[in-house]
C-alpha cells in the first residue's frame, strides 16, 4: 500500500515535470529554468524527438499511465491485486529502459546533461525500484 | 490514506501553479513587437532571397545549412567544425556554403538574432555578425533580452548603427526569415542544424571530417563522369 502510494506521488511529480518540458517544446515557455545545465541543448537536439514526437510527450503519457494504474492500485478493491503490481513493474521497466537510452544519448552522443532529464531519470528509477520490490514480496 | 490524498493534492496544486507561472513569464522578444507606424516596409518574403553564401560560385558542391542562432548545437558546429570546413573546403574552392534561417519556435530570441544577422548582411557583414552571435553565445544561456548586446556586436564589426537600428526596428527582413522557415518545413527540417549537400539531406554526424569525405567523394564522382 505504502509503496503504491509512493509510486503514485512520484508519477505525479514526473508527470508535472514532463508537462513542463512539453510546454517548452510547444513554445509556451520561453526558456527552461536550468541553471548551468544543458537543457535547451538537449531539448533542441535531433534526439529530443522519437518517431516524430517530442520525447517529453512520451514522458507525459508514461507518467500519466503509471499515475492512473497506481491510483487504481491503492483503491481498497485492488490493493492486494497482484496484477497491478506486475503491471506497474512492467510499465516502469519500459520507462526505465527508455530513460537509460536517453541518458546514453546525453552522455555519449550529445555530451551534455539536461538537469530535468536527470530528475526524471531518478524518478523513474525510484518507481522501478519500488515496483520491483513489490514484485519480489510474496505476502 | 487521508494524508496520502492531502499530499497528492498539495503536489498537484504546487506543481500546477509552477507550470502556470512558467507559461506566464515567457519573455516577449523585441522581434515580436509590432513595427511602429511609419516604419519602412519589411522586405517581402517573395523577394527570392536564397540565403547568405560564402565560397566560390563555381564550387562543385553546395552545402545548405538550416540553422538557429540560439541553438547550442549550431553554436558548437559553428565554432568547432566550421573553421576547419572553411579552411579545408570553402577557401580551397571545393564548397559553397549557404546559410538558411530556421529559428526554432522554442527559442525566445532566435528570430531576433536572425534579424540582426540580416541587418548586418544588408551592410555586407552577415558572416561577421554570424560569428559574433555564435562565438559569443553566452547571450543564449542567460534568457535576458539581447537587444543591447547585439547592438554592441553591430558596433564591434563596424556597422552603421543608424542603419542597423532602422533595420532592426522595422523588422525589415522578418519576411525573408519566415520564408526560410517555411522552405525548411517543406523540406522536412525538424531540428537544427540540418544540412543538405547538393540538394540531398546529410544524415551523418556533422563533423568537418564527414563533410570533407563527402565533398571529396562527390568531387571525384563529378570528375569521373564523361
Describe, in plain words, how this protein is organized in 3D.
The complex is a heterodimer of chains A (139) and B (226). Chain A is mostly helical. Chain A has a single domain, classed as VKOR domain (de novo design (two linked rop proteins), Up-down Bundle). Chain A is built from five helices and two strands, in the order H-H-E-E-H-H-H. In chain A, strand 1 and strand 2 form a beta hairpin. In chain A, helix 4 (82-110) runs antiparallel to helix 5. The model of chain A has no long low-confidence stretch (mean pLDDT 83). The longest helix of chain B has 23 residues, at 2-24. In chain B, 53% of the residues lie in helices and 10% in strands. In chain B, helix 3 (110-122) crosses helix 7. Chain B is an alpha+beta fold and 226 residues long. Chain B contains nine helices and five strands, in the order αββαβααααααββα. Chain B has one domain (53-224): Glutaredoxin (3-Layer(aba) Sandwich). Classes of the chains: A mainly alpha (139), B alpha+beta (226). Chains A and B meet through helix 1 and helix 2 of A and helix 1 of B.
Concise structural overview:
The complex is a heterodimer of chains A (139) and B (226). Chain A is mainly alpha-helical and 139 residues long.
CATH class of chain B: Alpha Beta
Q: In the CATH hierarchy, what is the superfamily of chain A?
A: VKOR domain
Q: Uncertain runs of chain A with pLDDT below 50, 5 residues or more?
A: none
Largest sheet geometry of chain A: 2 strands, antiparallel
Radius of gyration of chain A: 16 Å
Molecular shape of chain B: globular
Radius of gyration of chain B: 21 Å
Oligomer state of the chains in this structure:
heterodimer
The end-to-end distance of chain B, rounded to whole angstroms, is: 82 Å
Determine the number of helices of chain B (DSSP H or I, runs of at least 4 residues). Answer: 9
SSE-based structural type of chain A: mainly alpha
- Tell me the major beta sheet of chain B: 5 strands, mixed
User: Average pLDDT across residues of chain A?
Assistant: 83
Determine the CATH topology of chain A: de novo design (two linked rop proteins)
Mean pLDDT of chain B: 85
Largest interface: A-B, 30 and 30 residues
Q: Approximately how much helix is present in the residues of chain A?
A: over 70%
Give the second-level CATH assignment, the architecture of chain B: 3-Layer(aba) Sandwich
Give the tally of structural domains of chain B: 1
Amino acid at each position: 500500500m505504502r509503496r503504491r502510494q509512493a509510486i503514485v506521488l512520484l508519477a505525479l511529480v514526473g508527470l508535472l515535470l514532463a508537462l513542463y518540458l512539453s510546454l517548452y517544446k510547444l513554445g509556451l515557455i520561453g526558456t527552461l529554468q536550468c541553471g548551468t545545465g544543458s537543457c535547451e541543448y538537449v531539448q533542441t537536439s535531433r534526439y529530443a524527438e522519437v518517431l516524430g514526437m517530442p520525447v517529453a510527450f512520451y514522458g507525459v503519457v508514461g507518467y500519466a499511465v503509471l499515475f492512473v494504474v497506481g491510483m487504481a492500485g491503492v483503491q481498497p478493491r485492488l490493493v492486494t491485486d497482484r496484477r497491478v503490481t506486475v503491471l506497474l513493474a512492467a510499465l516502469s521497466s519500459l520507462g526505465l529502459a527508455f530513460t537509460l537510452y536517453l541518458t546514453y544519448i546525453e552522455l555519449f552522443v550529445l555530451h551534455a546533461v539536461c538537469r530535468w532529464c536527470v530528475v526524471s531519470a531518478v524518478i523513474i528509477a525510484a518507481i522501478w525500484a519500488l515496483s520491483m520490490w513489490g514484485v519480489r514480496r510474496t505476502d | 490514506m487521508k494524508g496520502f490524498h492531502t499530499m497528492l493534492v498539495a503536489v498537484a496544486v504546487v506543481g500546477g501553479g509552477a507550470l502556470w507561472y512558467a507559461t506566464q513569464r515567457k519573455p516577449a522578444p523585441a522581434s515580436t513587437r509590432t513595427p511602429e507606424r511609419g516604419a519602412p516596409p519589411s522586405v517581402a518574403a517573395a523577394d527570392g532571397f536564397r540565403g547568405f553564401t560564402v565560397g566560390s560560385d563555381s564550387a562543385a558542391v553546395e552545402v545548405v545549412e538550416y540553422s538557429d542562432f540560439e541553438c547550442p548545437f549550431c553554436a558548437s558546429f559553428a565554432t568547432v567544425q566550421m573553421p576547419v570546413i572553411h579552411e579545408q573546403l570553402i577557401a580551397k574552392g571545393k564548397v559553397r556554403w549557404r546559410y538558411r534561417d530556421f529559428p526554432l519556435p522554442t527559442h525566445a530570441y532566435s528570430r531576433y538574432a536572425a534579424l540582426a544577422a540580416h541587418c548586418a548582411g544588408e551592410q555586407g557583414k552577415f558572416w561577421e555578425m554570424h560569428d559574433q552571435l555564435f562565438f559569443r553565445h553566452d547571450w543564449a544561456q542567460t534568457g535576458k533580452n539581447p537587444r543591447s548586446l547585439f547592438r554592441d556586436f553591430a558596433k564591434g564589426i563596424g556597422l552603421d548603427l543608424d542603419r542597423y537600428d532602422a533595420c532592426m526596428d522595422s523588422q525589415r527582413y522578418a519576411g525573408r526569415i519566415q520564408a526560410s522557415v517555411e522552405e525548411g518545413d517543406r523540406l522536412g527540417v525538424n531540428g537544427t542544424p540540418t544540412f543538405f549537400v547538393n540538394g540531398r539531406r546529410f544524415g551523418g554526424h556533422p563533423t568537418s571530417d564527414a563533410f570533407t569525405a563527402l565533398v571529396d567523394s562527390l568531387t571525384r564522382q563529378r570528375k569521373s563522369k564523361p
